[in-house]
Amino acid sequence: MEHTGTGFGTQVIHSGVTPGKDCRPLSMPIYQTSTFYFDTCEQGGRCFAGEEGGYYYSRMGNPTVQLLEEKIAALEGAEAAVATGSGMGAISSALWSIAGAGKHILADKTLYGCTFALLGHGMTRYGVEVTFIDTSDLKAVEENLRENTCAVYLETPANPTLKIADIQAVARIAHGYDPNIKVVVDNTFATPYLQRPLELGADMVVHSATKFLNGHGDALAGFVCGRRDLMDQVRMFGVKDMTGSVLGAQEAFLVLRGLKTFELRMMRHCENARKLADYLVTDPRVETVYFPGVPTHPGHETAKKQMRCFGPVMSIEIKGGKQAGMDFVDHLRMCRIAVSLGDAETLVQHAASMTHSAYSPEELKAAGIPEGLVRISVGLENAEDIIADVKQALDHVK
Ligand SMILES: *Cc1c(COP(=O)(O)O)cnc(C)c1O
After folding, report:
1. Whose CA is nearest to atom 4 of ligand 1?
2. Which member of 186, 203, 343, 389 is catalytic?
3. pLDDT for 121-169, tens place per residue?
4. How close is the Cα of 36 to the center of ligand 1, in Å?
5. What is the side-by-side order of every strand in the sheet holding 374-377?
6. What does the record give as cofactor (predicted)?
7. Helix (H) or strand (E) segment spanning residue 69
8. Burial class (CB in 10 A: 0-12, 13-18, 19+), 197
């Protein structure tokens, strides 16, 4: 029994016993605590030095967050995973662990808008060189590697054009040039249900778990996954020293709950996306459907090779360009106009004015992002209702 003191205020703070091993909740409790206490200074010292297990401060480790990290590592086939407060927290913690002044990052030019801003406008302020290329063009990868290249960074499928890069081929080229180069893949769109980049030769996977992994649109979270020594670096240097982008226990609990239905949700998302794409390719008002499942998509064969199926996200270009695209979005009745993706609701947004507003018109052009591009994150509603809403919105486009 703990010594609880006799004063009222002291008892408010110290009375009661924390449940121990005899209490076995089915769902992981939310360990809502910043710090953890020790029996002695010596024990505290051993815990800090890593000589014995246990927790000491939630920025370095928390039981709720740790269970989630172990699950994500298992799903990605990684030795370890580090949870972060957002996808951008994961990306910045990973990249700051790898790069520094004088180093060079080779990145794809079609990226999540904030990642593009971090690489193009953020890291370059601190002496990191960044070259943007098209990583689906293997020759471009080969030609742009340099002696000081420390990382190759890409998304596949890429946001928002669903461009596909061949992870295995990119990793082979990068590691052939210099085995120390870290190939980092943002696996947010595919998720480990569809694609496991580490098995294809990537060194690190980053995630916005705000999207499909959580799946309920009620939390921000991110992950970095990879070899244990690399993840120790990300935790002890990237998160602890550089970004502090730690995941809270409440959010970890929400993602743990979301994950219980992850596979079922992904199956439904992908089935609905397939049906919507099948309809869209037959509608003469739609100019192009950007979906790896469409046989004319340039990444179709690579996607077939490295993904379980073609995923839950697509983009479309409507005849009539930018104005037609915006008219279409404005006339949707059930689907929501919102950025983000991976939620139960079908979310639709206009890339150039929303998620990719960090790109200048020239940069949009270079990245192959048409001005009228509309991105659709296909939700969990009934496919007939999604298709009916899209159809009636197309009827309204002048
Ligand atoms: C949303 C997203 C991010 C950023 O994640 P946050 O959780 O919003 O910080 C990064 N990459 C991709 C592909 C995304 O869709």
Report:
1. 87
2. 186
3. 999 999 999 999 999 999 999 999 999 999 999 999 999 999 999 999 9
4. 31
5. 286-290, 313-318, 374-377, 347-350, 336-337
6. pyridoxal 5'-phosphate
7. helix 63-76
8. buried
Q: Who lines ligand 1 at CB under 6 A?
A: 86-88, 112, 115, 155, 159, 186, 188-189, 208, 210-211, 220, 222
Predicted TM-score (pTM) above 0.85? yes
59 counts as catalytic: yes
Output the six-digit token pair for 218: 């009620």
Domains within the chain, CATH numbers bracketed: 81-242 (3.40.640.10), 262-395 (3.90.1150.10)
Q: Are strands 313-318 and 204-208 parallel, antiparallel or unpaired?
A: unpaired
Active site residue 211: yes
Distance 112 CA to ligand 1 centre (A): 7
Residue 300 is inside which H or E element, if any?
helix 300-306
Nearest CA to ligand 1 atom 1: 208
Nearest of 256, 259, 234 to residue 60 by alpha carbon: 234
Which residue has 């005899």 as its token pair?
A: 22
Q: Are 43 and 51 in contact (CB under 8 A)?
A: no
Ligand 1 atom having least distance to the Cα of 340: 1
Provide, for the chain, the percentages of residues in helix, strand and coil under a 3-state DSSP scheme, each rounded to the nearest 5: 40, 15, 45
Closest ligand 1 atom to Cα of 155: 13
Residue bearing the CA closest to ligand 1, atom 8: 87
250-301 per-position pLDDT tens digit: 999 999 999 999 999 999 999 999 999 999 999 999 999 999 999 999 999 9
